[in-house]
Specification:
The protein is an alpha/beta fold and about 400 residues long. It has two domains: about 200 residues, 3-Layer(aba) Sandwich (Rossmann fold); about 160 residues, Glycogen Phosphorylase B (Rossmann fold, 3-Layer(aba) Sandwich). The chain is built from 16 helices and 14 strands. The chain has an eight-stranded mixed beta sheet, sandwiched between helices. Strands 10-9-8-11-12-13 form a six-stranded parallel beta sheet, sandwiched between helices. α4 links the parallel β4 and β5. The chain is globular. About 50% of the residues are buried.
């Protein structure tokens, strides 16, 4: 099997998609007889993050404006030279979708599309006119002609069907690596908050869909109405600003006069990210739209209780009592915050323990890689569909 993996960024700027592709392909390469080549686009962090792909060595291409489209001369020719027997695309709405479709039509190569939550209704309606145009020009054909569409969860499978796609769908979640070394670094915020303060951590992309505006409004309301419960806590927002949204959030923090209890600490990667999870007391993701967020799995891997919305698409977290459920509006978030802050240390630790048990049982990379390999084999004509595939 010669598998070509087509995507955009192969660096930290890809957010959770980076870990999803990187670890599943590394695990597949280690276990199964498959030749994998990854094709991606150059950005400001590519050179720093390429070593993390080892033993894979992604082929990287410079883009021509507009950057959001991701047109890169040489991308298509490089994939053709690899002569794949099967392809996977990760993410949609970019030029590599057209590359995949072109090669499939020309060479008869089957492919699997991994939308990573980008067909969720909120995501589709964001910048709607651009996506309608992309759909007409190339993306709808790319999606319709896929041999299989991969959903990260049941909810994403529903979104795929709502978009009007009738292809077979395989439901395969992301995986997670459990921490395997002790964290010796101090908290990234150790010199900016008072000793003894508890930390509610958000870590990820600073983007409108993450619901951070409503979180900050809810934080302000909680300070006004429930100061006795929230006075021991600080909200730490760690992440990279993808769209200029962080400046809006900083202005909101100043307007609401909560800058004493809300901190923006910038992107955290590698050891700094591990230290952030390790030293936090709880994690929050008040998102409007997700595929299956890696940050929630990472928080559980560190034994943190999680406050999240149903749009995070991990219902197992609520069923296993590993998370507190809130809707992504300020009033609901206030209620969730008060529930979290009312817990004792032991109760929070118990909730986080449920999360750690959940990721150990369900979200392992070896299981993800085995299911993805089985779907690839089936796509190439290897017998009946695996259990994770549905045709309805």
């Amino acid at each position: 099997m010669k598998l070509a993996v087509l995507t955009g960024s192969v660096s930290r700027l890809a957010g959770g998609i980076l870990g999803s592709i990187q670890r599943s392909m590394q695990e597949m390469l280690a276990v199964f007889p498959v030749d994998i080549s990854v094709f991606g686009l150059k950005d400001s962090f590519t050179n720093d993050d390429l070593p993390g792909w080892a033993p894979l060595v992604p082929q990287i291409f410079e883009t021509i404006n507009p950057k959001a489209f991701g047109y890169a001369p040489g991308y298509l020719d490089a994939v053709e030279r690899f002569k794949p027997s099967i392809m996977q695309t990760h993410g949609i709405w970019m030029h590599f979708s057209h590359v995949c479709q072109s090669i499939s039509k020309k060479r008869g190569v089957p492919y699997i599309v991994n939308p990573h939550g980008m067909l969720d209704p909120w995501a589709v309606n964001n910048s709607l006119w651009k996506k309608k145009l992309a759909g007409i020009l190339y993306e709808n054909e790319h999606l319709r002609n896929a041999s299989c569409l991969r959903a990260l969860c049941e909810s994403e499978a529903v979104s795929i069907r709502q978009y009007g796609l009738k292809n077979p769908i395989c439901i395969i979640p992301n995986g997670i690596d459990l921490p395997d070394v002790p964290v010796l670094d101090p908290a990234p915020w150790h010199d900016t908050i008072e000793p003894g303060k508890k930390v509610l951590l958000y870590l990820g992309r600073i983007h409108e869909k993450k619901g951070l505006r409503n979180l900050i409004v809810a934080w302000s309301e909680a300070l006004k109405c429930h100061l006795n419960l929230i006075s021991d806590w600080v909200l730490i927002i760690a992440g990279w600003d993808a769209t200029g949204h962080q400046e809006e959030l900083r202005m909101l923090v100043d307007f609401l006069q909560v800058h004493n209890t809300v901190r923006f600490i910038g992107p955290q990667f590698d050891r700094k990210k591990a230290a952030a999870y390790f030293h936090a007391d709880a994690f929050v993701l008040p998102s409007f739209s997700e595929g299956l967020p890696m940050t929630v799995l990472e928080a559980w891997a560190y034994g943190l209780p999680v406050l999240m919305t149903p749009k995070c698409n991990i219902p197992e977290g609520f069923k296993s009592c590993a998370a507190i459920k809130v809707e992504p509006d300020p009033d609901e978030i206030v209620t969730g915050l008060m529930k979290l802050f009312s817990l004792t240390d032991a109760e929070r630790k118990e909730i986080g323990g449920h999360g750690l048990f959940l990721v150990k049982q369900k979200f392992s990379w070896d299981k993800v890689a085995a299911e993805m390999h089985a779907v690839c084999k089936w796509t190439l004509g290897g017998g009946p569909p695996p259990e994770c595939v549905r045709g309805d």
